[in-house]
Amino acid sequence: MHVWEIVLIFLVLSGIRVWVLHRRASKAMAAPLQRLALEFGGDFTPRMFFLPKLTFRHQNRSVEISATSTSIRGQRNVDTYALFSGLEVTDFKFRLQPDSFRADMDFGDLNAGPQTMVKTGNSAFDKMFILTGNDAESVRSIFSPEILEKILLWDQQSPQHPVSDIRPYDDKLVCRVKGILSSYSDYRRFIDIAIACCDQVVAEQGKRKRGGRGEGWIVNR
After folding, report:
1. Most exposed among 9, 76, 144, 149, judged by the fewest C-beta atoms under 10 Å?
2. Domain locations in the chain as residue ranges
3. 42: how many CB neighbours lie within 10 A of its CB?
4. Number of C-beta neighbours around residue 142 at 10 A
5. What is the Cα–Cα distance from 180 to 67, expressed in whole angstroms?
């Protein structure tokens, strides 16, 4: 057997394996997302080459729930995400990541400038997560005690799907948890946490717009 034949067989088998895993994940996601589409008055979209997604509106903002592959430090990971679009465009930046990312975190941002670590005062939370931002007061306001408890409870009840990333960019806010959720209850709890985080960000944007905090937070475009 020629080398190219071995390579071809390997590629075909790899493709079949990827397709089987994709179909399995799509099937697991379909039922809970369809049920949630009915609850939220949204749309469930099956996709051939991507995982299915749920879209709905929350306070006139677009929300997308799905899962996707990401590459972190050269490793491929699959995360379930909630993506909110239609927020104010700001120069305020923050990011929540697991403490395990500490050694590889980037504390700079070309648009927002340097970011610093922010302590919440919740010792359990501060041990599990790294929270950074360019405005500590606003970060602490967004990650209120209620939000911290929701995130800690999620990681306690769903240790196989820990929170992996929460951050804004452009007019969006993304919340991610590790792995692909497959149960309705997990999706419902995840969406509740993501919506609570989004509401906190929007509320803080409102304070900034009314002049309740520092200047220059809202960027007009």
Report:
1. 76
2. 3-209
3. 20
4. 25
5. 6
CA distance 115 to 188: 32
For the cut 80, the answer to whether the pLDDT of residue 35 exceeds it is yes
pLDDT > 70 in the chain, percent: 73
Q: Can you name the residues that pair with 44 across neighbouring β-strands?
A: 54
Pairing mode, if any, of strands 43-45 and 116-117? unpaired
Of 150, 144, 157, 133, nearest in space to 194 by CA: 150
Q: pLDDT tens-digit profile of 134-160?
A: 889 999 999 999 999 999 999 999 999
**pTM, two decimal places:** 0.80
Cβ neighbors of 166 (< 8 A, separation 6 or more) are 95, 96, 173, 174, 175, 176, 197
Mode of pairing for the β-strands spanning 94-98 and 129-133: antiparallel
Take residue 32 and report the two structure tokens written for it: 């809970």
Give the C-alpha separation, 92 to 197, whole Å: 15
Q: Which two tokens stand for residue 113?
A: 């400038």
Give the chain's count of helices (H) and strands (E).
5, 9
**Calpha distance 184→196 (Å, rounded):** 18
**Torsion sign over Cα 84, 81, 204, 132:** negative
